[in-house]
Design brief:
The chain has six helices and two strands. It is mostly helical. The protein has a domain of 51 residues. The protein has a two-stranded antiparallel sheet. Helix 1 crosses helix 2 and helix 2 crosses helix 4. The N and C termini lie far apart (41 Å).
Amino acid sequence: MSTKRAEAVEALYNENRLAATRAVLFHAAVASRAGLNVTDVNCLALLDKEGPMTPGRLAQWTGLSRGGAVTAVIDRLEKGGFVRRRRDAADRRQVIVELVRDGAYAELQEIFVRFGKAYTALIEEYTDAELAVLLDFVRRSNEIIRGQIAETAGPPRSGG
């Protein structure tokens, strides 16, 4: 690999790491503005993109424990007017957590709409061919990240 190519590969890798860090910081800023924490905002994002789900499924998606941790998140979000619990129509024993899209969540969404407009404007600057490459790169990057999350998550290593 040429030196110039190696430098470009390293620069792209470093910029993507910086983008990931800034995404975390952005979500922390959004959470702070809403009086929530990042885990709460992640749960809202999942409910927004994946739809209503059981607390157990929400715990699975986020890596929270099925007991107290996910319950505490749902309690905070419900108290803030972001979500509501309802009984599953098919199995009344099941609780479903669903996003309340008006009120508190709508105010939070204004931040994401602003971000989305700026991000979309940037994306629209690229040609169709460049967009195809970028889309391929992001999809494959996301798959690597998903795999790394699955590989990294799990029981904590024993201390010693």
